[in-house]
Amino acid sequence: EQINKGKYEHYMQKEIHEQPESLRTTMRGRLIRGGSCKAKSVLLGGIKDHLKTIRRSRRILFIGCGTSYNAALAARPILEELSGIPVTMEIASDLVDRQGPIYREDTAVFVSQSGETADTLQALEYALENGALCVGITNTVGSAIARNTHCGVHINAGAEIGVASTKAYTSQIAVMAMLALAIADDTISNQGRREAIIEGLYELPSRVKEVLQLDQEMEELAQLLIHEQSLLVFGRGYNYATALEGALKVKEVSLMHSEGMLAGEMKHGPLALVDENLPIVVIATRDACFSKQQSVIQQLHARKGRLIVLCSKGDAAAVSLGGSCRVIEVPQVSDCLQPVINIIPLQLLAYHLTVLRGFNVDQPRNLAKSVTTQ
Ligand code: G6P
Known about the structure:
Blueprint: H1 11-17, H2 19-27, E1 31-32, E2 41-42, H3 51-56, E3 59-64, H4 66-83, E4 87-91, H5 92-98, E5 106-112, H6 118-129, E6 133-138, H7 144-148, E7 151-154, H8 167-183, H9 191-211, H10 215-225, E8 230-235, H11 240-254, E9 257-262, E10 279-284, H12 290-302, E11 306-312, H13 316-319, E12 326-330, H14 338-357
Parallel strand pairs: 3-4, 3-5, 5-6, 6-7, 8-9, 8-10, 10-11, 11-12
Antiparallel strand pairs: 1-2
The structure holds 6-O-phosphono-alpha-D-glucopyranose.
C-alpha cells in the first residue's frame, strides 16, 4: 500500500503530501509528555546507552551527502545550542578526500536515507578506524550504515520512492532535533527551551498539514517561473539549510539552475547577479535572524531584485516593501523546527515546475536514488 501512488500522479507528489503522517511515525513513542515526577523528554532507544559517551565528546561531526547533509545542517544550530559541544559538518566524499582528522573523543553521526551511500560508508569506515563513536541515522533498517555503526536512530519515514528526497528530509530533521534534546536531557538550565521544542514537535504534523495548503499557490508561482534560466535562494541561521535544500530540489527535478546561498555572504559575490530579471527567494520567517533578513530584502530591493519572500503568517506587510515582492506566508513553529515547514513550499514549487516543464519527476535525468558506487 505504501508503495503505490494512490490518488497521486507521482511518488514525489505523494511523498510531499504524506509528510504529516511520516513525521508522526518518526516521532511515535519517542516523545514523553511527562507524568507527575518526570518532565517532558525524548526517548531514543537506539542511542540511550551511549548518551553519556556522546555528552563527553569533544566534537560532534555530522557526515552525509546531498539531502541528508542538508538535513544535518538544519539540525546543527539546535544541537550546538543545547549540547554546548562544537558541531562540524562534513560532506562524506570531502572528508575522505582530505583524510580530515578524526579522534577517539569525537562522535561521528552518519546521516543517510538509504544507509547504503558509498561515500558515506567509506567515511564511516574511516571514522571507525580512527576510533570515533559512530552513530547512524538512516531510513533503512538493516542497511550497511545501520549495521556498521555503534548505535543509531531509524527515521521511520516509510519507503521513499521518488529520487528527490522529501519526506525523509523532514523526518531526518525531526530525528536530529530529538537527538539534540536527548543529549541535553541532563541539563536543568535549558529545560524550558527543551520542553517548548517538544511541544513544537507534537504540533508539527498539523502545521505541516497547514503549509501543504499552499499547493495551488506554488503551482501558480511555478507557472510564472516556468521559462526562467535560474533561481537563487537566500537563507541564514536555521534556514541556511532550507536555501540549500530548496535549490537542490529545484535543480535536481525541474532541471532549472538553482543555488542556495547563505544570506550573510550576499555582499561577497552573489549581489553582482541581482537585476530585475533573476528571481530570488528570500527566507525570512521569524527567528533571531529576522531583522537581518529584512535588511537583506531591502538591499536586494534597492538593486531591483525580483523577490519572492517566504515569511511567517501575518508578516506579509513587514517583508513586502509596499507590495513590491511576492510573499509566501507559512505557519510559524519553534525556530529550530521551522526548516521542516519552510522546505515544503519549495518542494511543491520544484514538483510543479518539473511537471509544467515536462520532465520526469520521479526519475530525474542522470540521477539515482541511492549512489552505491564512487
Ligand atoms: C542521492 C539521492 C539524494 C540523496 C543522496 C544521499 O544523490 O538522489 O536524494 O540525498 O543520494 O543519499 P542517502 O541515502 O545517503 O541519504
